[in-house]
Write a structure and sequence with these properties.
The protein has two helices and ten strands. The protein is mainly β. It has one domain: L,D-transpeptidase catalytic domain-like (Beta Barrel), CATH 2.40.440. The strands form two sheets. The chain has an eight-stranded mixed sheet with strand order 6-5-4-10-1-2-3-7, covered by helices on one side. The protein has a two-stranded antiparallel sheet with strand order 8-9. The longest helix is centred in the C-terminal third of the chain and has 17 residues. It is globular, with a radius of gyration of 14 Å. The two termini are 14 Å apart.
Length: 150
C-alpha cells in the first residue's frame, strides 16, 4: 500500500498544496477555493481517497479519486489556472505562482505518475490523504514528517 499526502493552504482565489510521498515533496498542487464542496466550483473535502487509473475522454490516461462525498469524476490532471481550467479536480504543478495558479503542470503530473502507476500495475492500493497544511509557508525545500494513516 502506498499513501500520498496533500497538504493544502486555502485562499479566496484558489487552494495551493504540497503533495508528498514518503516524507518527500513530489510536486505542488492547485485547486479551486473551498466553497462547501459545491460541484464544479469547490475543491473536494479533506479526507482519504483511493487513487485509481482511469481513461478520460478529454485528459487521456489519468488518476481518479474514488468515493468523494457528493462528487464524481474527480481527476488529477494538468492545469495551470484553477479558476479557468478546473471543475473540482486537482492539478499538480511544478511551482505555485499565486493562489490557484502554477506552472509546468504536465511535468509535475508525470513525476506523480512515475510513483503511482508502477504501484497500481503491481496491484497495490494507492491512497491520497488530503489535509490542511499548518501555518508553515508552502515551499518544496522544507522536509516533511511522515504522517500516520490513522
Amino acid at each position: 500500500m502506498i499513501t500520498l499526502y496533500l497538504f493544502r493552504t486555502y485562499h479566496p482565489d484558489g487552494t495551493n498544496g504540497l503533495l508528498a510521498y514518503a516524507g518527500k515533496p513530489v510536486c505542488q498542487t492547485i485547486e479551486l477555493p473551498w466553497r462547501n464542496n459545491r460541484r464544479s466550483v469547490s475543491c473536494i473535502p479533506e479526507g482519504r481517497y483511493r487513487l485509481l487509473r482511469r481513461m478520460h475522454y478529454k485528459h487521456g490516461d489519468q488518476l481518479a479519486l474514488s468515493h468523494v462525498p457528493g462528487r464524481e469524476a474527480i481527476l488529477i490532471h494538468p492545469a495551470n489556472f484553477a479558476l479557468r481550467e478546473l471543475q473540482g479536480c486537482i492539478a499538480p504543478v511544478s511551482r505555485c505562482t499565486a493562489p490557484g495558479q502554477g506552472d509546468y503542470s504536465k511535468k509535475a503530473l508525470q513525476r506523480l505518475k512515475d510513483i503511482v502507476y508502477p504501484a497500481l500495475a503491481k496491484g497495490e492500493r494507492v491512497y491520497l490523504v488530503i489535509r490542511e497544511r499548518e501555518a508553515a509557508p508552502l515551499t518544496t525545500d522544507v522536509p516533511l514528517k511522515q504522517q500516520s494513516d490513522e
